[in-house]
Amino acid sequence: MNDPAAIRGGPGETAPAAAPLSAVGRGRLALTFDIEHPDRPHWRPDTTDRLLDILAATGIRATFFIQGRWAEANPAVARRIADEGHLVGSHSFFHASMPLLSDSGLEEDMTRATAAISASTGMDPRPWLRLPFGHGVGDPRVMAAIERLGYRHVGWDVDPRDWDPRSTAQVIESEIERVAMSRATSVVVLHGWPSGTVPAVAAVIEALRVRGVEFVTVDQLADDELPAGIPSGPETPV
User: 135 and 5 in contact (C-beta within 8 Å)?
Assistant: First the structure.
């Protein structure tokens, strides 16, 4: 998270509306975490470890999109993510806005990220990728490049804005539960550094499990259940 650039769903980028739970029974929720170097004051260095503790205690697998530069700096935590059975994806190397990179720069960033994440986790992150800030979704050049490198972008349709210092744990929890209980399938974007994310995730798991929501990783969702774009709305650094 370096550049608070605006992200808005353009034509063809907004995730389609899903059927309400009342029409399909219980829903499925993919918790996804962007693991990156923080750049805001409300962070704790142990947040990712604490998230892993909660997921281990509750027996839930999540999806972690790991920044290559972060993996190089935190190899033990990166390895723990993989060792505990979570799905690993890439979040680029430098967390740059991909459309701003040249063809060679984009390829270098993505290739370097793949190598760093593989070395730290022991897992190949392909094909799972989350473009930094969601930038590049709908850009034919960027999308062709990541596909050529063996990746596909995974967007989100729930953003509780945990990166915003004004978002308390209660605000984060309420937004996730509100959307999750109105959809058949949801993909939530969260981060591995904000201080409010840990208590919010713990509360969400407890509240939604008793309501029959199933927690899944993104590889357990069908192609038409994976949002490629992002919801339109306020500016969202991711």
Answer: yes
- Cα separation of 214 and 226, whole Å? 16
Residue 202 one-letter amino acid: A
Note the pLDDT tens digit of each residue in 160-185.
999 998 889 999 999 999 988 888 99
Alpha carbon distance 43, 141 (integer Å): 34
Q: What pLDDT was estimated at residue 26?
A: 65
The domain locations on the chain are 24-225
- Rounded CA-CA distance 208/177 in Å is 7
Residues 180 and 158 sit within 8 Å (Cβ to Cβ): yes
For 82-123, write each residue's pLDDT tens digit. Answer: 999 999 999 999 999 999 999 999 999 999 999 999 999 999
> What CA–CA distance (Å, rounded) separates 101 from 235?
21
CA angle in degrees (0–180, nearest 5) for 193-214-234: 45
Query: What is the dotted CATH code of the domain comprising 24-225?
Result: 3.20.20.370
**Angstrom distance (rounded) from CA 26 to CA 183:** 9
H helices of 151-215, where?
169-180, 197-209
Query: Residue 228 burial by CB count (10 A; 0-12/13-18/19+): exposed, middle or buried?
Result: middle
Does residue 136 contact residue 153 with C-beta atoms inside 8 Å? yes
| Block residue for tokens 């808005």 | 8
CB 228 within 8 A of CB 153: yes
Tell me the CA end-to-end span of the chain in Å, nearest whole number. Answer: 6
How many CA atoms does the CB half-sphere of 46 hold within 13 Å?
3
